[in-house]
Amino acid sequence: MSKVLIQFAHPTHSKSNVQKTLEKYARTVKGVTFNDLYEHYPDLFIDVKREQQLLEKHDIIIFQHPFYWYSSPPILKQWQDLVLEYNWAYGPKGHALKGKKIFNALSCGGGRDAYTPSGYNRFSVGQYLLPFNQTAYLCRMDYLPPFVVHETYTIEDYVLKACGEQYAELLDALVNDRIDPAELAGLEYLNELFPH
Amino acid sequence: MIYLAAAVVMVPIAKRLGLGSVLGYLVAGVVIGPAGLKFIGMEGQDIMHFAEFGVVMMLFVIGLELEPSRLWRMRKSIAGLGGLQVGVTTVLVAGIAMLFGLNWKEALALGMIIAMSSTAIVMQTLNEKGWLKTIAGQSSFAVLLFQDLAIIPMLALFPLLADHSGVTEGHSGGGSLVSALPAWQQTIVVLLSVSAIVLTGKYLLRPVFRMMARTALREMFTATALLLVVGIAVLMTSVGLSPALGAFVAGVVLANSEYRHELESSIDPFKGLLLGLFFISVGSSIDFSLVTSKPLLIIGLVGGLMLLKMVILFVLGKIFEVRNAQNFIFSIGLSQIGEFAFVLLSFSVQQGVLGKEVSDTMTAVVAISMAMTPLAMMVNEKFILTRFCLVSAGLQTAQRPSDVEEQDNPVIIAGYGHFGNIVGRFLRANGVEATVLDNDSDNVDFLRRMGLKVYYGDATRYELLDIAGAGRAQMIIIAISDEEKRLELIETVKKHFPNLHMLVRSTNRNDAYDLMNAGMMHIYRETFDTSLRLGVDALKLLGHRAHEATRMAKTFFVHDERTLKHLSSIRNDDEYIHAAREHMEELEMIMQADREAVHLNALAGWDRKAEAEAV
């Protein structure tokens, strides 16, 4: 059994569709803590102690957020700046997060082909996520491939529903340690573990 | 002792029943008087002379509060509203009295007596209800003031009205040095003594007070103030004038002096106690044998006179654009005959203007009408005002069948002053309609015209909350300014609407503690956020970075709220002080730590050299 912490960041939650659906499915999974950052810190005044305690109590951290300008909404950056303290998360004495798993669960407007060398976004989602990847590395964490929902503006209801179920399956598998690290090698998205 | 005991018993009961302290005193008087338990007999009359001193002191204090400049600002309503009220009432009552066969001199004297309203009762009641600042309160004050002023010429005029055969009626007014003089000389003496007071007050008293203040003994100041008032009273009585008048003039003369507040606070307790005594003696002096022998006459007189005064006031109120609901408060409030009537009545008997029989009957009438006032005010508040506001609410719904009016609003705002109205406006800007409760009927009128759902009245009352939909709303925002009213309202909500969320305004730390003890979860100290915003700007002007200053303020905010919660649980003296000191130290540490944390984090991601230095 692993404890999963979802760090959720969405500044205009009431207008979202995909993220709300993902949230709905995530909240059905036992063993998952859903931490709504904008709800807790509407003015970006993050309670560092609380956040560090949450991190210490969980084994798998997920940054769930819309993919804004090839990155996260600002509160997640603020969160990293404040919470990942020197000699706590990293540095010679920083071992608090050692060995924990971490990844991003994203929704993005563009299709998957846009994130290819010939597409209009030119680079892959994984490449855009390199700062998260490296942050995790510096904090001695395992960075897993992202979970991604594409084409959020045009997504059909049944596809969205399927994505939600897929997300719930993934979370459930993570909680119950059913994912073999060997399976992850060469995987671009975590979605691929649960083909529909 | 009997008096005090009676007051101690009756006043809280009257307050609990929502009748106000004045009626409590009056009832206490009736109960212990000759008509009730007979604890005191007819010596009530003597006590009354003693207690009239309360009225003297009240007038002194009223005088103190009246700077000439304020008088000048209110000149239109004082002269217009007040003048017309006194004039019209006097003329009408005199006319009616003449129809009943009194001669014109008696009739005129009666008219003037009856034109008076009770400053003591009305001001006390308005103050208790928090209505002093409303239009009704201001208008009432203007009228009362004019009446107070009108006493001066009246007292001067009465000797002229005297039937000279009456002077020798062998009355107890024998202490007066001047009663032997002819009427015109008396008038001159009156004017002279008034100017003597003005001159003394202006030139002599200030140095005296300065000297007293220099002794730095509070008791000396109190003694001087008392001596002053007593001295004036004695002087005035010895020239055959009302001591109340003298005290009032002295008060006005001293209103501009720097010792005004000091004087007021030293006289105030005496004033309150003596006034209470005065009301008690009014109650005990109601001659029930007279009432029972001529019940119809007395009741008819009370009812007729009060109605007449009320109608006159209502019409005048309309002319002077006092709006309907306020006009009810104004006209009903002033409809009684005031304590000056006693003074004027006894004076007029002394002067032989009125016969003993007329004066006795009128004394009973005046006393009863005073006793009726708090009752009339209560009836007005409970029935007329609520109906009035409900009816107009009903009319509006009929005129504009909008769905907003029909459905219940999720939010109730109690108190729509400067605090409540910002909350209300903000909610409204975001499409949340609130039902408003307010006890300023002008405000209510205005908001209603703006299309808000507003109810007039005391929000602490269950009925009003019920009408406002407290049973179906999600939350009540308690934004009234009066701390005690807020606690009362909280109790009512807890008892009858336990599911309603309460968001409560608090004045300061101490008030917040009380609210916490009352079990409140959402408490908003009204100056806290603003002070911190000012603090942030101060730091910015001193060269701090805006964002850092803002974060410091937020840190302070969070910490202070937490401290507040902690301290509220251990609120007793020594422990409290100790804990407070500890918290100051903790705060210092936290703020220091925050400054370092911000500093470090601001650099951490970019500058590995700084990071290395920090280790």
Note the topology.
The complex is a heterodimer of chains A (196) and B (615).
Chain A: E1 4-8, H1 18-26, E2 32-36, H2 37-40, H3 48-57, E3 60-66, H4 74-83, E4 101-107, H5 125-128, H6 130-138, E5 142-143, E6 147-149, H7 157-175, H8 181-184
Parallel strand pairs in A: 1-2, 1-3, 3-4, 4-5, 4-6
Chain B: H1 2-16, H2 20-32, H3 44-65, H4 68-73, H5 75-99, H6 104-115, H7 119-129, H8 135-161, H9 164-167, H10 183-214, H11 218-238, H12 243-254, H13 260-285, H14 288-293, H15 295-319, H16 324-333, H17 340-350, H18 356-399, H19 403-406, E1 411-414, H20 418-429, E2 434-438, H21 441-449, E3 453-456, H22 462-467, E4 475-478, H23 483-496, E5 501-506, H24 509-517, E6 522-525, H25 528-541, H26 546-569, H27 573-604, H28 608-614
Parallel strand pairs in B: 1-2, 1-4, 2-3, 4-5, 5-6
Helix pairs in contact in B: 1-2, 2-13, 2-18, 3-12, 3-13, 5-6, 5-8, 5-15, 6-8, 6-17, 7-8, 8-10, 8-16, 8-17, 10-11, 10-12, 11-12, 11-13, 15-16, 15-18, 16-18, 17-18, 24-26, 25-26, 26-27
Protein model, in words:
The complex is a heterodimer of chains A (196) and B (615). Chain A has one domain (4-193): Rossmann fold, CATH 3.40.50.360. Chain A is 35% helix and 15% strand. Chain A has helices spanning 18-26, 37-40, 48-57, 74-83, 125-128, 130-138, 157-175, 181-184, and strands at residues 4-8, 32-36, 60-66, 101-107, 142-143, 147-149. In chain A, strands 1, 2, 3, 4, 5 and 6 form a six-stranded parallel beta sheet that branches. In chain A, helix 1 (18-26) runs parallel beside helix 7 (157-175). The model of chain A has no long low-confidence stretch (mean pLDDT 94). By secondary structure, chain B is mainly alpha-helical. Chain B folds into three domains: 2-44 and 57-160 and 178-387, Na+/H+ antiporter like fold, CATH 1.20.1530.20; 407-504, NAD(P)-binding Rossmann-like Domain (Rossmann fold, 3-Layer(aba) Sandwich); 527-615, no CATH class. A six-stranded parallel beta sheet of chain B has the order 3-2-1-4-5-6, sandwiched between helices. In chain B, helix 21 links the parallel strand 2 (434-438) and strand 3. In chain B, helix 7 (119-129) packs antiparallel against helix 8 (135-161) and helix 10 (183-214) packs across helix 12 (243-254). The longest helix of chain B is centred in the middle third of the chain and has 44 residues, at 356-399. The N and C termini of chain B lie far apart (79 Å). Residues 165-176, 391-407 and 599-611 of chain B have low confidence and may be disordered. The A-B interface holds A 43, 45, 48, 81-82, 85-87, 91-92 and B 551, 554, 558, 597, 600-602, 604-605, 611, 614-615.
